């Protein structure tokens, strides 16, 4: 029993001596300090490089009027965001490899394992591969771009970001919707071509339709000269509907992409002001009430 205790005490003493020698080794702490310093330096430099590259990319894709190579601003913004994302991923991936190298990890087996692992992930994560492929075709085919007003899968908003994996849009009320590119099945883009503003004007039956048409068209000519969003000649389509107390007249005007709602509001306000200036009232329901003797006479006349 005493011999076992002696052996155990010798073993603990040897372990303590080895631990103390290892901890008190100045070269070991120097190596650890240099390694930590190099890792911190790699992280710091990678962030600086990412910042510089993003600034350079933003400057390259800056839209300049009068340049020989002209591109739509929407495509410029889309490519700028995409290039920034790809370069950031590449720089950070390289930084991770350098950190592993500083930790003493042999990169050759890691790269080989990463290739095999990437192949396995490619078979397993088919949805991720589909998102990337779909994102590539969205950008290549110019289906929509950053800044476009679109409806994606029944969600409407302005495109904030298009990546190889996800698309981000922001609705006019502030909500941000994120779609994996592989789930995008239906897209309506309102920013590619000019839109049509449709305005219906209700007038009383007592007013002359020819006079109303002249007043409305004169107002539209003033709007065409003052509203910069209007790009086409206003078209008066005529009587659209006959209501219980009003005649509805319709007119249309071509305007810049995604400005038809604002143009319609401006046109309604201008028409309303012009009708008030001309002394024309907005139609409203009229009710005739007949009582007593007048009611009996009206009934007899109707029967006869």
Automatic annotation (TrEMBL):
The positions making up the signal sequence are none
Keywords of the record, alphabetical order, are: Cell membrane, Membrane, Transmembrane, Transmembrane helix
Membrane topology type:
Multi-pass membrane protein
Q: Where is the Mechanosensitive ion channel MscS domain?
A: 128-191
Entry's InterPro entries? LSM_dom_sf, MS_channel_1st, MscS_beta-dom_sf, MscS_channel_2nd, MscS_channel_C_sf, MscS_channel_TM-2, YbiO_bact
Subcellular location(s) of the protein: Cell membrane
The residues that cross the membrane are: 28-57, 78-104, 110-129
* Residue span(s) of domain Mechanosensitive ion channel transmembrane helices 2/3: 85-126
Stored PANTHER family: MODERATE CONDUCTANCE MECHANOSENSITIVE CHANNEL YBIO
**Family statement drawn from the similarity comment of this UniProt entry:** Belongs to the MscS (TC 1.A.23) family.
What is the name attached to this protein's record? Mechanosensitive ion channel family protein
């Amino acid at each position: 029993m005493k011999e076992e205790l002696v052996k155990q005490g010798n073993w603990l003493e040897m372990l303590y001596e080895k631990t103390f020698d290892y901890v008190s080794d100045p070269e070991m702490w120097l190596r650890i300090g240099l390694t930590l310093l190099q890792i911190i330096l790699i992280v710091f430099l990678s962030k600086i490089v990412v910042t510089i590259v993003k600034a350079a990319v933003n400057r390259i894709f800056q839209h300049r009027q009068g340049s020989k190579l002209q591109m739509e601003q929407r495509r410029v913004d889309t490519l700028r965001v995409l290039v920034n994302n790809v370069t950031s991923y590449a720089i950070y991936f390289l930084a991770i490899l350098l950190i592993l190298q500083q930790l003493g990890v042999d990169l050759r087996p890691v790269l080989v394992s990463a290739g095999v692992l990437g192949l396995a992930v490619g078979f397993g994560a088919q949805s991720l591969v589909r998102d990337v492929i779909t994102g590539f075709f969205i950008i290549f085919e110019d289906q929509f771009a950053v800044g476009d007003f679109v409806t994606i899968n029944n969600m409407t908003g302005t495109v904030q970001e298009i990546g190889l994996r996800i698309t981000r849009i922001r609705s006019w009320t502030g909500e941000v919707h994120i779609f994996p590119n592989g789930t995008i099945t239906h897209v309506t883009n309102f920013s590619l071509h000019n839109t049509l503003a449709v305005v219906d004007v209700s007038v009383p039956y007592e007013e002359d339709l020819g006079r109303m048409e002249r007043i409305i068209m004169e107002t539209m000519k003033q709007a065409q000269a003052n509203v910069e969003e209007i790009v086409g000649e206003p078209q008066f389509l005529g009587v659209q509907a006959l209501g219980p107390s009003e005649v509805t007249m319709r007119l249309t005007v071509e305007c810049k992409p995604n400005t038809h709602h604002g143009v319609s509001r401006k046109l309604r306000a201008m028409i309303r002001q012009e009708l008030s200036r001309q002394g024309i009232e907005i139609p409203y329901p009229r009710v005739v009430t007949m009582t007593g003797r007048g009611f009996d006479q009206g009934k007899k006349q109707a029967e006869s």
